[in-house]
Design brief:
This protein is mostly helical. The protein is built from nine helices and no strands.
């Protein structure tokens, strides 16, 4: 590992260590968000731009370092900023943080893992190249795939950074709206599990599978059209 990779790895480790050593997790609990809602609102009314930027930066840091707390911060965004502004802030902050986490994993870990599990990664890369944006979009929609795990795994692939960014933005949008909207009614929420009901998760799974099914259907009709043209059939469509 060269000095630059080592520096980045130490920086990431220092951020994660500080989070737990200083017990910063206490600020990312549902109870703390509820208790602080009034004071947050008062500060936001006085300095809306400053508060929004600080919140945005904190959200990016949490997601980039793969720390626990993103779900609670999404609720806090709904409670403090409302549905529209909260959705905009969380959507871009979560996508930027996810992209930074992916790039960090790619820069720090990819070479060593490639050397050790090269053949397995080749298979994953083939899947990415074959399914492209459909594959990532489906994984982003299905909430059973942990957010931080997907960021790290995608960093080990050859997916393009811009593709990763915009597909993640679209794929996470539905879940973002659901959680931000729930945050606008935070007083009625007792736990995060009460938001992610089985019916809601099932809906996301169906949405996640749909793009892959559409892609498979398009490939089928494309192959059928090519075959029909090769046979000289008038049914080529």
């Amino acid at each position: 590992m060269n000095s630059r990779k080592l520096f980045i790895a130490v920086l990431l480790l220092a951020g994660i260590t500080a989070f737990f050593a200083l017990d910063l997790g206490r600020y990312f609990s549902l109870a703390f968000i509820k208790d602080s809602q009034a004071s947050f609102q008062a500060v936001f009314e006085q300095k809306p731009v400053w508060v929004t930027l600080v919140f945005f930066a904190a959200y990016v840091a949490v997601t980039a370092l793969s720390l626990p707390g993103a779900a609670v911060m999404t609720l806090a965004a709904g409670a403090g900023f409302g549905l529209v502004l909260g959705t905009v802030v969380v959507s871009f902050a979560s996508t930027l943080g996810a992209t930074l986490a992916m790039l960090a994993a790619r820069y720090v870990l990819r070479d060593s893992i490639q050397a050790r599990f090269g053949r397995r990664l080749d298979e994953i890369n083939k899947g990415i190249e074959k399914e492209g944006a459909f594959y990532l979009f489906s994984l982003r929609l299905i909430p059973v795939v942990p957010f931080f795990v997907l960021n790290l795994l995608m960093g080990l692939t050859r997916i393009k950074t811009w593709t990763y960014f915009w597909v993640s933005q679209l794929g996470m949008f539905a879940g973002t709206v659901v959680y931000v909207n729930a945050g606008t009614q935070i007083a009625k929420i007792d736990s995060l599990q009460s938001i992610a009901s089985p019916a809601l998760i099932g809906s996301f799974v169906l949405l996640g599978v749909l793009p892959l099914l559409v892609n498979k259907a398009l490939q089928f009709f494309k192959r059928r059209k090519v075959y029909a043209l090769e046979q000289g059939s008038p049914l080529a469509f």
